[in-house]
Design goal:
about 700 residues; alpha+beta; single chain; five-stranded antiparallel β-sheet; eight-stranded antiparallel β-sheet
């Protein structure tokens, strides 16, 4: 086992000497706390509970589970699995607010449905080794803690914690059943087995680590006093701290999340969940809590004010002063574009979701006023259902949201704007002015949830998508397999990058020899993207390779003037790199790219300059959301006759209007253009892109060697 490099979490835990359960949020017996929630919020929660009562409980069949092994479809199972959890959460929150028993029977139905499930794992996660073969049906003799085994455990644990006094009055067997399930599916495997997400210093960690660890801690720290000894709680916390440190090893000091803004919710925010739970379990809290004595009676404890002796020990909360933790926290602010859009790459969606109490509380914990205000303001823009996160499956988050709700509603607006950012750890530059948000990526193709996108960029103008990154479609068996890069959204040809076509070899389309090399090349270029899976294995099509070794070189990022430019020159953000090695093709000798935002420049605000040396033709892809149309010097040939697809004058710039957003001008080095429409039919992609997307494919002039695009 390799050694952990960072020991932040373990070091701060070592400063503590007391170990408790976690009771910062009250159970249902604390009527003063639940009654303190605003009338508006209580009405929303009760309404959501009433609506949940009217929804039928879904029926999970073994055939739903085995469908993934047959067809790769995981949605059929998930569409029945997740609604149970959402419904239960809304019922529990309504009962905690109302406290009339109206929702208890429905809550017990849902609780027992989940307790009785054969497994809490999702079908794609039933392998005992990382990326190993999945079990076709669950093996009940050997438990696996995956993302949703842990999250389901946390849900039933927190349901039992919140309603323990009520359950005790009905029957002690309810809590006994919950505890037995947690023992079988969470505690014993966590203590006695090794899972890759725990960390070993060798395997790469991802959002699985804090996401699972947080939920295991919720299970353990909400058990009734006496379930675990103080020494056992200490062992849980120490093991969790080590896993958090292995996770932190994956981060650079800049706090950049290489899984993107959408996965920050499960990476950085779940790290905060871990830290919050450890902090709450290592210092006595003044919150009231209830427990059941040996006679089955509910006893409410109110610790009240701490004595001087109780307060004179160091607390874990000092970890929030660490610069790395602060940088991880405010990553999400730096990624925000506006109008709900975020800078996206890899599997991240451009619409990465709304902010909640988790970001708000993380911002307050690290003392970041901008993050706290940003989260509160984003929260206030949401619908009623989103403000009470009615679709969230983690009950702990529901309670966090409820008890931060009124403060977020009234929290002041902070006018601090995100500055330009350079995340050296992942090679990501984000630059802004009053009109544009430009993001450009160097890095490598070994990221978690990787797409082959080294050198790609995205652009927003006045908050509207101009040049885009598609994100990822609905997860299937192929998504996380050795066939991942057969999927179109993963390939470099569908990012804003060059693709090369080797016309020197026979491609099988001209058996009679009727086509010239140029025509043969044009035919293949015209068909590029028709069958992405076939393209991935076509030796004549040269796209980027996946893997950490396929990385940008000679990377340079400049933010602002260096002092060498004339004072009259506008402030500039620039990223330059060499990306030829990412294609692993000897005929691509060199490919240098420079991407710049010239702030305030109305003539050439965004410029992409490429220099290419090689012996095979290059085709530049630019993906747009709005429909492109050639409006100057050339035509937007989408016609079937590829041989006529050329500019009227290749020596003159070609101007392409992209809907009502802006224009892309091929200043030099481009000799033809092909515009293609790609329909969006996948449900996950449709949640971001409501209509077709488009690809502008520029044929680069191999004699020029220098290519320049201006976007404005």
């Amino acid at each position: 086992m390799g050694r952990v490099k960072r020991t932040l979490t373990s070091d701060h835990l070592a400063k503590t000497s007391r170990y408790f359960g976690y009771n910062r949020y009250p159970d249902i017996s604390d009527r003063k706390a639940w009654g303190s929630l605003s009338d508006e919020l209580q009405r929303k929660l009760i309404k959501a509970g009433e609506e949940a009562r009217d929804e039928p409980w879904t029926q999970l069949l073994i055939s739903d589970f085995t469908e993934f092994g047959k067809s790769g479809n995981r949605v059929r199972f998930e569409d029945k699995y997740f609604p149970r959890r959402r419904k239960l959460n809304n019922l529990v929150m309504a009962e905690c607010v109302e406290n009339k028993g109206r929702f208890i029977d429905d809550i017990l139905d849902g609780l027992y449905l989940i307790l009785d499930e054969t497994t809490w794992c999702l079908p794609p996660h039933t392998s005992y080794e990382r990326d190993g073969a999945q079990e076709r049906v669950p093996d009940v003799t050997r438990q696996i803690i995956d993302l949703f085994q842990a999250e389901s455990g946390a849900e039933i644990a927190y349901t039992e914690y919140l309603l323990r006094p009520v359950f005790a009055e009905i029957s002690p067997h309810i809590s006994i059943y919950v505890n037995e399930r947690l023992k079988e599916r969470i505690f014993e495997p966590y203590v006695n087995q090794f899972f890759w997400w725990m960390g070993d210093g060798i395997q790469t960690m991802c959002n699985w680590t804090p996401w699972i660890v947080q939920n295991v801690l919720i299970c353990a720290l909400t058990r009734e006093k006496g379930t675990f000894s103080e020494e056992e709680i200490k062992n849980f916390l120490q093991k969790a701290a080590v896993s958090c440190d292995y996770f932190l090893d994956e981060y650079g000091d800049d706090g950049g999340c290489n899984e993107g803004a959408q996965y920050y919710t499960h990476a950085g925010l779940c790290l905060f969940g871990c830290l919050e739970l450890i902090d709450g379990a290592t210092k006595e809290d003044s919150s009231r809590y209830a427990e059941i004595d040996d006679d089955g009676q509910v006893i409410v404890h109110d610790p009240g004010r701490k004595t001087a002796d109780q307060a004179c020990y160091e607390t874990f909360a000092g970890i929030y002063n660490e610069p790395l933790i602060r940088n991880i926290a405010n990553f999400i602010v730096k990624m925000y574009v506006g109008g709900g859009y975020y800078v996206n790459f890899a599997d991240c969606s451009a619409l990465a979701g709304g902010r909640t109490a988790r970001e708000f509380l993380f911002g307050k914990a690290v003392g970041d006023e901008t993050l706290a205000s940003f989260a509160a303001e984003d929260f206030r823009r949401e619908s009623d259902k989103e403000q009470i996160i009615s679709s969230e499956i983690n009950l702990f988050y529901h309670v966090m949201q409820a008890f931060a709700y009124d403060e977020m509603m009234a929290y002041p607006v902070c006018n601090n704007l995100a500055e330009d950012s350079w995340f050296e750890s992942m090679g990501l530059m984000i630059a802004r002015d009053k009109t544009y948000t430009l993001a450009a990526k160097a890095g490598d193709n070994g990221d978690s949830h990787n797409h082959n996108d080294v050198g790609s960029f995205t652009l927003y103008k006045e908050g509207r998508p101009f040049v885009i990154d598609l994100g990822v479609g609905t997860y299937t068996k192929k998504t996380f397999s050795d066939r991942r890069y057969e999927l179109w959204t993963m390939q470099s040809q569908f990012h804003n990058l060059p693709t090369f076509i080797d016309r020197s070899a026979d491609d099988g389309v001209d058996k009679a020899g009727d086509l010239s090399d140029s025509q043969r090349n044009g035919r293949l270029a015209f068909e590029l993207g028709n069958d992405p899976a076939a393209d991935a294995h076509n030796t004549h099509i040269v796209m980027q390779k996946d893997g950490k070794k396929y990385a940008a070189k000679d990377v340079l990022c400049l933010l602002g003037n260096t002092g060498k430019e004339p004072e009259s020159r506008p402030e500039r953000a620039l990223l330059e790199m060499e990306i030829s090695g990412v294609y692993a093709e000897k005929k691509v000798k060199s490919y240098k790219r420079k991407i710049a935002l010239n702030k305030g420049d109305t003539v050439s605000p965004v410029v992409v300059k490429d220099n290419y040396e090689g012996s095979i033709p290059a085709y530049m892809s630019i993906m747009t959301y709005e429909k492109p149309e050639v409006v100057g010097n050339g035509n937007s040939n989408a016609a079937e006759d590829y041989s006529k697809n050329s500019f009227q004058n290749a020596d003159e710039p070609c101007v392409i209007r992209v809907g009502g957003v802006g224009t892309i001008t091929a200043v030099k080095g481009v000799k033809s253009v092909l515009i293609r429409e790609f329909a969006i039919t996948d449900q996950r992609l449709m949640s971001t892109w409501k209509h077709s997307v488009y690809r502008i494919l520029f044929e680069m002039d191999e004699h020029a060697g220098e290519y320049e695009l201006v976007l404005k």
